[in-house]
Specification:
GO terms for molecular function: carbohydrate binding; metal ion binding; polypeptide N-acetylgalactosaminyltransferase activity. It is built from 19 helices and 24 strands. With 635 residues, it is of the alpha+beta class. Bound molecules: 2-acetamido-2-deoxy-beta-D-glucopyranose (3 copies) and manganese (II) ion (MN).
């Protein structure tokens, strides 16, 4: 439970989808080759995000060891990966609390192995064994400040070679000789200078010069000193070599990701704009598929495929193709590939995607016509889901281009957004209010917010509502039916939030340990494992709301025997006629419709409460929020 608090939960908002991406990598390497993502999720007691995080954590070391020999690039600074090191690492990871073998006094062959000053820092798990104490301190300080290994980045060549991650069939593709011009927009806030320079260098070296019209840097009010005069000086040098190519625009106050992207688009003049983070390296042949596709159809907004640059080693890590989706909280994630695309049997074909992540390219004018990014999305989070929705609803399309690849540096932590939940939740409500019509309640339910007086200030939406009207955009219902059927709105929920029994107000109904199917009473907290959803039809969902067609929510069940309730995947349990239907009204008993037993609590002699099923006494339960008038909707 505590662990879950500190998780980097689905950081894909800026592309950093560590958790699910790990899953995709597993899938690609064949460890789970007979599974597809959809199946992986089936029957799991948690939504993909948290579950896959746990798996990712368990297997990621193994995974990287499998991946790296094949796909890692030859870094100029060689990572010493001899057997001793590997052994040491394995031992360290198996016994994280033990001193690493070989350190200190014992006579081992590892003469140059230095004591780790920061044994718990993620920076030094796979890197930095041979640094002096001063170097370690410097590297750790930079890591804390930036969320990635700036110490290493500063030593790597700006023009380093990176492995071509494209499918070989991409190399056979031919593109028109006449293509639109390209403007690349790099947005940043307190990025390391060497990382920005490497991005610029990769763009200059890997984009045909006759197509590359401009590179525009947008600084969202960095405080980092080296991004002022020193960066200006570097830009001057680039422009001596490539006259007029680079420009920089600096915000004079912090405006957030969405507005930084808009600033870049507004000052650009090229036919097509590619809006990228500044912590990327574009790969060979990245631009041509983008320009050709947008030339064919100006209403397509495209995304390249991302590979991962490791935050610690700066090594490359291949990600497989997936489409960009999201859940009802509007956390974005990767979804499995659509069957229609697989049936095409062309790995180079564009893939239709329900949404888009933070790196995209579009016809500059078209992007403006459909409203660019919503400047009212603050800080970070949800702005890309909003764009994806709007593009589909208002006359465009979103596609992923498998032959265009951009490597993206995934931060270990985001120094500027310590609580991603808070910013995403606010932005998600804004999206719901503008775009989701009668289904907007799903976002409130998923975030466990009251439908009225939520206390969330989502800003002034009048201009975006007007835009929606002017563009004659379709309804969210249409989107769910035609573009993203995976999300399943539910309108039978009449009560939700924390379930408490007045006999012990300190504890809440909780889904219990995961993986597991045993609901418990747990000290009340604000995490999603204590979300409960009661349906007018009698089901009680316990745990984070999923509400998707391919994954079941978990239903409170009376197994009929014994005194312990269980959680079962709802549709399967319904088919098997398990006892998942309950009668309940706020302040009333929770009575199983089939067995007539009640969900109650008992206290042991130490005062600990436990959940039981038994013949009803007179116990009652409360639920945190109600929808309308308990089913008699008042809206
Ligand atoms: C990188 O730049 C250096 C110095 O300009 C040059 O010697 C080297 O060949 C370049 N490397 C690549 C891979 O282009
Ligand atoms: C982060 O924000 C969420 C609200 O979305 C809140 O429940 C949680 O307590 C916050 N966490 C921290 C560490 O502030
Ligand atoms: C919202 O913005 C519009 C202009 O976009 C403005 O006319 C209106 O007064 C604003 N509403 C509020 C409550 O500030
Ligand atoms: Mn990013």
């Amino acid at each position: 439970m505590m662990l879950r608090k500190s998780l980097p939960r689905l950081l894909c908002l800026g592309l950093t989808l560590i958790t699910v991406a790990n899953l995709l990598v597993f899938y690609s390497t064949g460890i789970f080759q007979n599974l597809v993502l959809g199946d992986l999720q089936k029957g799991l007691p948690l939504p993909l995000t948290e579950w896959s995080w746990a798996v990712g954590k368990r297997f990621s070391h193994l995974e990287e060891d499998l991946q790296n020999p094949k796909e890692s690039m030859k870094l100029t600074i060689k990572q010493q990966e001899n057997k001793d090191n590997l052994l040491k690492r394995v031992m360290h990871e198996n016994h994280p609390n033990q001193k690493v073998m070989g350190a200190g006094t014992s006579q081992t062959k590892e003469n140059n192995y230095k004591e780790k000053l920061f044994p718990d820092s993620r920076l030094f798990r796979k890197w930095g064994d041979h640094l002096s104490e001063d170097q370690q301190k410097k590297a750790e300080g930079l890591f804390q400040k930036f969320g990635y290994n700036v110490y290493l980045s500063d030593q790597l060549p700006l023009n380093r070679t990176i492995p071509d991650m494209r499918d070989s069939r991409c190399l056979q593709k031919r593109y028109p000789s006449q293509l639109p011009s390209l403007g690349v927009i790099l947005i940043f806030m307190n990025e390391a200078l060497s990382v920005i320079q490497r991005a610029i260098t990769s763009i200059i070296n890997r984009t045909p010069s006759q197509l590359l019209k401009e590179i525009i840097l947008v600084d969202d009010f960095s405080s980092n000193g080296e991004l002022k005069a020193i960066l200006d000086e570097k830009i001057k040098l680039y422009n001596q070599k490539y006259p007029g190519l680079l420009r920089i625009v600096r915000h004079t106050q912090r405006k957030g990701l969405a507005q930084a992207r808009n600033t870049g688009r507004e000052v650009a003049t090229a036919d097509v704009v590619a809006i990228l983070d500044a912590h990327i390296e574009v790969n060979v042949g990245w631009a041509e598929p983008i320009l050709a596709r947008i030339q064919e159809d100006r209403t397509v907004i495209v995304s390249p495929v991302f590979d991962n640059i490791r935050f610690d080693t700066f090594q490359f890590y291949k990600y497989n193709l997936g489409v960009d989706g999201f859940n009802w909280e509007l956390w974005c994630r990767y979804d499995s590939l659509p069957k229609a695309w697989i049936d095409l049997r062309d790995v180079t074909a564009p893939v239709k995607s329900p949404s888009i992540m933070g790196i995209l390219a579009a016809n500059r004018l078209f992007l403006g016509e459909i409203g660019s990014l919503d400047g009212g999305m603050l800080v970070y989070g949800g702005e890309n889901v909003e764009l994806g929705l709007r593009v589909w609803l208002c006359g465009g399309r979103i596609e992923i281009l498998p032959c265009s690849r951009v490597a993206h540096l995934e931060r270990h932590h985001k120094p500027y957004a310590l609580n991603l939940s808070m910013t995403l939740r606010r932005n998600a409500v804004r999206v719901a209010e503008i775009w989701m019509d009668e289904h907007k309640s799903m976002v409130y339910l998923a975030w466990n917010l009251p439908l009225q007086n939520s206390g969330i200030n989502y800003g002034n939406i009048s201009s975006r509502v007007a835009l929606r009207k002017n563009l004659k955009c379709k309804t969210f219902d249409w989107y769910l039916e035609n573009i993203y059927p995976r999300l399943k709105p539910i309108h039978s929920i009449v009560g939700y939030g924390r379930m408490k029994n007045p006999l012990d107000e300190n504890v809440c109904l909780d889904q219990g340990p995961v993986p597991g199917y045993s609901p418990i009473l747990h000290y009340c907290h604000s995490y999603r494992s204590q979300n409960v959803y009661y349906h007018l039809t009698g089901e009680f969902y316990v745990g984070p709301l999923i509400s998707e067609r391919t994954i079941d929510d978990h239903c409170l069940t009376d197994p009929g025997l014994g005194k312990n309730p269980t959680l079962e995947p709802c549709s399967k349990a319904a088919r098997k006629k398990k006892h998942i239907y309950w009668d309940f009204k706020p302040g009333g008993a929770v009575i199983n419709r089939d067995t007539s037993r009640c969900l109650e609590i008992t206290k042991d002699n130490k005062g600990f409460s436990t959940l039981v099923l038994r013949a009803c006494t007179v116990q009652v339960w409360t639920i945190q929020h109600t929808v309308g008038n308990w089913g008699a909707r008042d809206t």
